[in-house]
Amino acid sequence: MTSTLSSTPSTAGTLFAIAWKNALQNRSRLVLTVVAVVLSVAFLTATLIVADSVTGTAAEDVAEANASLSLVVEGEIISEGDGGPGEALESVRANIEKGAIEIVRGVDGVSAVEPVIAGFAKVVAGGSAIGGGTASDVGRNWIPNDLLNPFKLLEGSAPSGSDEIVIDQSLAEAGDIAIGDTVEVLTSTGVRQTSVVGVAGYGNAKAAPLQRTVFFDQDHTAEATAQQGAGQLRVLVSAEAELAQVSADIAAAVRGSEITAGPAFITRQQDAVSSPFAFLSLFLIAFAGVATVAGATIIFNTLTIAIGQRRRELALLRAIGVARRQVVVSVLVETSIVALFATIIGIAVGLLGAGGLRSLMDIAGLSFIDGPTVVRAPTIVIAALVGLVVTIGSAWAPTRTVSSAAPVEALRSSQIEAAAPSQRRVLIGLLTMGAAVTMVVAAALSKAPILLAGLALIVPGLALAGPAFVAGSVKVCKRFLASTNGIKSTKNMGRTKRVEGEIAVTNLDRNRRRAASTSLGLTLGVALVAFFTVIAGSLNASFTSTLENQLNADLVVTSVSTEVSTIEPGLVRRIDSLDTVTAAGLSLVEGSVDGEGAIVGGIDESMPSLFDFVTTKGSIANLTTGGVAIWSGFESADRSIGDSVEIRVPGGVLTLPVVAIFDESLAGFDPPTHLLNSELLDALQPGLLDSVIFVKAESETSQELVRPLVAETPGSLFETRNGYIGAAGAEVDSILNLIYALLALTVLIAIVGVANTTALAITERITEIGLLRSIGVTRRGIRSIIRFEAAVLAALGTLMGLAVGLLGSWALLRAAGESTLNTIAVPWIQLGLVGAASIAMSIAAAALPAWRAARLPTLDAIAA
Amino acid sequence: MIGTVSKVHPPKRADARLARKEVSKPAARLVDARKIYGTADATVVALDGVDLEIKRAEFTAIMGPSGSGKSTLMHCLAGLDQLTSGVAIIEDTDLTAMTDNELTLLRRSEIGFIFQAFNLIPSLSARENIVLPLSLSGKSPRSDLFEEVVDLLGIAERLEHRPSELSGGQQQRVAVARALIAEPAIVFADEPTGALDSQAGAEVLGFLRRAVDDRGQTTVMVTHDPSAAAWADRVVFIVDGKVNDQLQDPSADSILDVMRGLQP
């Protein structure tokens, strides 16, 4: 007996052979482990791919398209844009003066200068506007100089003359437009008949990021888009000249201009096109985090049970002389092989699943992704790390526990009693949760959004205190079961739900930690669903109730897109001139007021009779005297009547006295913060289109007169009052749909976790099930027990999730949303459905393991 | 408590309750019972035409070498397994014609089981384990019967404990109590002392003996231990799937004699 216990190649080989045979003989255990890892890794991979694809290749395209650019000359910044879903975050700038281009051309070292003149332009083919979603419709001048034009002609020729245009390739594809086709283009100046002479691309992409572009002949662009002067000058500097010197010379020559070097311009553009997705990317990453937590929970539970089942086998190995270290190493090596295999499959499934996730987003009505699916190296690395590290790490703890038991002890008892979670752990968890809830409630009551950080504490709190909640729900279930006192079935099976229920809940009680971690995934998923449901419901209700109460119009004419104004200004006058009809339009322009970013609205004189702005000071009617009204939701709204404010828009500057402060601005994400009389705004910023027109037309006959006027004006849509109010929430809904689709997947993963844990827990309890069968529990009874267990777990996870979600959303709305939201609406029915669906699906997911448990041959089970 | 179990057998069949049932009619029987495992290529004949009657209110031990078919015999007679051919009858019920559900309900009401180990549901207390067969049928135990059984087995103070808090002998006593509580037609015990030390084993056998004597409980026990079988009224020896020999009022020595004769 002098031989050491060091591993020799032959013992390692023997151990591996045993592990291999073991794996093959216990296929279901192997399959469940692989399923857990594959699902988690695939989910994470797909989410990260979608997150990358949302931004797409825009950054590369921007760099490619502007590669040869030396300098850009732009006007001063009026206000920083606030972006929004799908809008590029670009500053609002003053236009460059008309003469500036000649001045720049005269600067030494400048070899070429071209202006960029850009405004609104939408292609209409066959009577319908081309392109939906979130991209904006841009009309700009075609730059003949290839080195300065970020776009390149893919086919056809450059436009020349007032009736020729070039369109980008995504427009050509979306509208099925070919060279030679005649299309209508809707711009600020009206509709023009044009002929398509060319198709252009941007960098390597079909279109510029977030834009659909129509190109006019250089000389006709200003007229077509009603732009005065250029938004920017693109400059090419000759190779011999000093770039910095040229830049300084231009700055000195053109007053009020900003000069940016090519590379810096590229960086700025890249930031601008990626920022609108910052929210979505953040959400997707948070979602990937939840997916990882849910996946890791499944993997951990699966391995804990799978390794626990091998207790006897491993003890036998120990008894016949295998060193403890060898046992640990062999299990870890085996797990690593499984982990590697499952991770590779998981990544492959994730690559395929990303396509599915993209189409899900399309169904949700969000065309954020136009470009190709982007798979970046970090995605694969992160997914692989999670798969391998979580799996092998999850195997570590149970392997050590199992191998540390004395061989004899392990051989003797086959029933594993889980160690009760330590009191300290539960106490720390409960204290953490208590602190979290206190912070969140305090945040809501004292309107201190910073305290909302407490929400982040809820997750670790739940994870630690979970067993206590399991114990609590077991108690509640037992009390309930005792009170029902045995509900006898009408069938002569004589089964009683009570006994089965009691066995089920005590099973849960036996391993509270596992029960808690299984339900945690569900809690997180449901909490997020509940959270977003309440937020969206409240946004929706606020928009709707504002309109319900404030809107005094019978009809509404809207733009074709909520993002841009597309209604020809003449329409409101044509409607207003009808007998017994009153119409008022709203036009919008981004700018600044006293240096703060603002959205300035121009309203017609009769608007106050159609929409009640609820003035707290002064009167909206006084706008006609040449004043400005300020929305009380605006950051610096604390002005008095008569104070002067300075309004800057791209078209110019104006100083006006405050004539009113109002409470209710028009609904939507970007309500006007300041109102002027429309004639005043038009004078300052000519060529604005109307965003919306409200119409008072009480009689049916007069309403029918309005309809054809709208129909014959491209860019305008006819809505009834109710239709308009109903559509107000649509913008919220389309984002909510995406969130729901993704969260449904999280909940699904959690439910698979419930099924997986249930299935494994059954193999752990074969003997017990055999015993129950032999003393008279029917197959149906066994199924009931398993399903009851899943139902209790699901109910616990779901209810906790609903509670956390409701608390979080309530606190957020109370603490941060009061200025824009006047209602906290809890969509109880939707939440109830979410809860019911989550519980029902968990029970459905447990059906297969329950069926298998019921089919276990009684004798095999006893003999096991 | 140990003192209540005498090493000397108490008088057998002393109880008057027996008069209630027809003593002459067997509680269970097997007629030409055959059980063949496996497929056409590799078949194992576990039971090869067994005819056997289990007499009412009698303690029957079934013995035989490993692989003799004694466990199969018990499983088929107890409705845990189905015969390939032949008939298995408990009271007047033919088990071979029953569905899985009918067999389950029969086991619930007419049969009590005691296995070698893992007899109890770990999550339930001793009391809950004992009344489990009744609760499954939605019945409560007669309180006098419950007390009688609990007193008989000396587990009154252990009723609220979980199985993991009981010794092996105590666990088996709880299992015996569970087997008796529904007043089944037959109690089947499969090596009930196999996992116990000799003293705890003797206690359990003493309880089974008293259940037969005091309560007229028909009991069938599979064992390979001659000293355990000696507690029975009759020993049936199974060899190669057939009834080889029987012994009435056995002693450990007489059983050993028969077993020696069975060795090849």
Polypeptide structure, described:
The complex is a heterodimer of chains A (864) and B (264). Chain A contains 28 helices and 24 strands. Chain A has a six-stranded mixed barrel. In chain A, strands 16-17-22-19-21-20 form a six-stranded mixed beta barrel. In chain A, strands 4-13-1-14 form a four-stranded antiparallel β-sheet. In chain A, a hairpin with a 2-residue loop joins strand 20 (644-649) and strand 21. Chain B has a domain at 56-74 and 100-262: P-loop containing nucleotide triphosphate hydrolases (Rossmann fold), CATH 3.40.50.300. A six-stranded mixed β-sheet of chain B has the order 6-7-8-3-9-10, sandwiched between helices. In chain B, strands 2-1-4-5 form a four-stranded antiparallel β-sheet. The N and C termini of chain B lie far apart (43 Å). The model of chain B is unreliable at 1-21 (pLDDT under 50). The A-B interface holds A 414-415, 417, 486, 488, 493-496, 498-499, 502-503, 506-507, 509-510, 767-768, 771-781, 858-859, 862 and B 75, 80-81, 100-101, 104-105, 107-109, 113, 115, 118-124, 128, 132-133, 135-138, 164, 178.
Key phrases:
heterodimer, A: 864 residues, alpha+beta, 4 domains, 17% strand, elongated, B: 264 residues, alpha/beta, six-stranded mixed beta sheet, four-stranded antiparallel beta sheet, 8 helices, 33% helix, 23% strand, disordered N terminus
